[in-house]
Amino acid sequence: MKNWWNKRTAEDKQKVALLALVALLLLGAKLLTGFGVDSLVLYFYLAAYVIASQDVFKEAYENIKKGSFFDEHTLMIIATLGAISIKQYPEAVFVMLFYQIGDFFEDMAVSDSRQSIKSLLDIRPDTAKLKNGPAVAPQEVKVGDIIEVAPGEKIPLDGVVVSGKAYLNTAALTGESKPLAVTSGDQVLSGMICQNAPLDIKVEKSFHESTVVKILQMVEDAGDKKAPTEKFITKFAQIYTPLVVAAAVLLAVLPPLLFQFDFQTWLYRALVFLVISCPCALVLSIPLSFFSGIGAASKAGVLVKGGDYLEALNQVKTFVFDKTGTLTKGEFEVVKVMPQGGMTAAELVKLAAICEQKSPHPIAKSICQYYPGNIETAEIEELVGKGVSAVYQGQKLYCGSQRLIEEVMGADVLLPKPQTETLVHLATKERYLGSLEVADVLKPTTKQTMHALKEAGANLIMLTGDNRQVGLAVADELGMDEVKAELLPQDKVKEVQKLKAKLGQKEKLAFVGDGLNDTPVLAQSDVGIAMGALGSDAAVEAADIVLMSDDPLSIVKAFKISQKTKQIVWENISFALGVKVICLILGALGLADMWQAVFADVGVTCLAVLNSLRILRK
Ligand code: ADP
Ligand code: MG
Question: 24 versus 99: which is more confidently predicted?
């Protein structure tokens, strides 16, 4: 309890004090009643009302300025002023007081769940220690500086290890609990925690471009994007509120006019009816549900960039996957060198390494690693999705896919056919020089993921830039429904557009990629899912959902969370509306008084809020 109180902001504490003051005034008024000081009692009540209702008036004023006259706040004001007009002072104050208490607890729940998301992502470093220098703010460290990270500290900026050997805790970034071993030459990301030994790190990105800052930014933004269900509620309130007000007016006016019933009684009933009608539970619990869903996902290492994507994920019927780096590890290894036309194996590897030295593609990395010597410089051009070309000793070399070589040498050139592994071909315009076989393996959880998605009724499609035989072999092993191979990045966009056109209104398409060459498709699909830890920055930016651990199984986790969120949202909607309708009828019939009305509203709101938070607990 003490802990809880200490966590509250000054604003929260001020609110508690004000609410206590209102309670004291009410108590004073109650005690003074019957002692012949009626006007003093009245002042007490009015003071209590003014204090308790000021926020509601402020909110209502803000909304009216924005042009929306009918919301829960205007409802409350009409109801309580009406109560005052019929001298039901304590009722008026209590309506406001209870509303404030309910509101206070909801704020609390929202800020606590925000807090728990933030603490999951408690990765923002305070300082960075320069090598043989002082500790400074991470913003002041420049690219190229060497920083020291002691055991137990967070890595403040993205970079590469230059000396030391340590285990890193990456849980905050990836949800993965297994420590990651790093040593000289390994990439490290800000937000990882160095566990057991000091590391020297050469900084490669400035602080505001570092992973940690980007993630925090995304989490902050995530709360702002509204899911369709949330928008529905806003619209709903705009129609609902005037309807309820009209019904209340009729309830107050018609029975006395038509049947000469007591006006006072029916006015009171109409006011009770208004109080009951406040849709607070809906208005407050639904955004909170989505927020909790986003929080639960981030616990599982999945960053969802907004409630709308969480909801859309639920409706995904077609999952489209990129192959390399998404379904497979994307860590190639040269397994065979097949020179032709008088080349030696050593020459072939040397030329391939010269071509590949600047390419970010995993194939390129494997070839450069395979070459034992120093790579000579050359003039290089990346032919995205196909390979690279290089001008070396006056010769133009082409290195890449079958498609690339066919484009260069003509479609009738005879190339060796790959079986299950990818071939990288090397050629000049006139002469075929040979190929390298590079092998990649499936990620350990890929099969299980495909199985689970299939089980959930999803259609699985693979789009790959790789050769047809290789693509088919992998798709076969995974039981994919469809596979398209030898695609360029722009072909992938066209395929996704075609697939989208085939889907119905409610069905959505998700594209899952590692971001190398597939940023445009990520942006095109209904739900773009990117591999975050190793994916490119552009892909992480274009994606709607980022898998921090690059583990395809996280898709299944996120899918389940989105289902749970949807279920809880609809539970809340039906529960809140159900109770509301019952209470409205009771109120109209005079079977519920103002007290019960207030309790019903606060009670439903609290239950709905607690229900929302269940998502986070799971
Ligand atoms: P995927 O769609 O499976 O992720 P990519 O679009 O990244 O594949 O690449 C498609 C194909 O283009 C690869 O299978 C490879 O044959 C070729 N390729 C692309 N970049 C390179 C490169 N730098 N070196 C050699 N081959 C490459
Ligand atoms: Mg790829």
Answer: 24
pLDDT tens, residue by residue, 422-481: 999 999 999 999 999 999 889 999 999 999 999 999 999 999 988 898 999 999 999 999
Ligand 1 pocket, mutate which of 356, 359, 363 (most atoms under 8 A from CB): 363
Residues 146 and 37 in one domain: no
Residue 601: predicted pLDDT:
73
Cβ distance 399 to 355 under 8 Å? yes
Task: For ligand 1, say whether the CB of 328 is within 6 Å of any of its atoms.
Answer: no
- Domain boundary (502, 522, 548) is at 548
Closest Cα to residue 359, out of 419, 322, 404, 414?
Answer: 404
> Within 13 Å and on the Cβ side, how many CA atoms surround 52?
31
Q: Confidence band (pLDDT; 50, 70, 90) for 7? A: low
Closest-CA residue, ligand 1 atom 27, reads: 387
Count of structural domains, the chain? 4
Q: Which atom of ligand 1 is nearest to the CA of 383?
A: 20
**Same-domain check for residues 65 and 189:** no
Q: Is residue 556 part of a domain?
A: no
Q: How far is CA 579 from CA 24, 99, 575, in A?
A: 32, 17, 6
User: Within a 10 A sphere around the Cβ of 524, how many other Cβ atoms?
Assistant: 18
The Å distance, Cα 384 to ligand 1 centre, comes to 8
Question: Is 80's C-beta closer than 6 angstroms to any atom of ligand 1?
Answer: no
Residues 518 and 470 placed together within one structural domain of the fold: yes
CATH code, 522: 3.40.50.1000
Write the residue with the smallest CA distance to atom 13 of ligand 1: 466
Say yes or no: 370 and 517 in one domain: no
Listed in sequence order, the residues at least 6 apart from 616 whose beta carbon sits closer than 8 Å to its beta carbon are: 113, 116, 292, 295, 296, 299
Task: Please tell me if the CB atom of residue 389 comes closer than 6 angstroms to any atom of ligand 1.
Answer: no
Q: Whose CA is nearest to atom 5 of ligand 1?
A: 465
Q: Ligand 1 within 6 A of 424 CB?
A: yes
* 306 and 450 part of one domain: yes
Q: How many whole angstroms separate alpha carbon 455 and alpha carbon 468?
A: 27
Domain hosting 180: range is: 142-205
148-168 pLDDT, tens per residue? Answer: 998 888 899 999 999 999 888
Q: What is the pLDDT of residues 109-125, one digit of tens each?
A: 666 656 655 655 566 77
- Which of 192, 190, 229, 230 is closest to 211 using CA atoms? 190
Ligand 1 pocket, 359 CB below 6 A? yes
Examine residue 130 and state whether it is found in any structural domain, yes or no.
no
For residue 227, the 8-state DSSP code is P
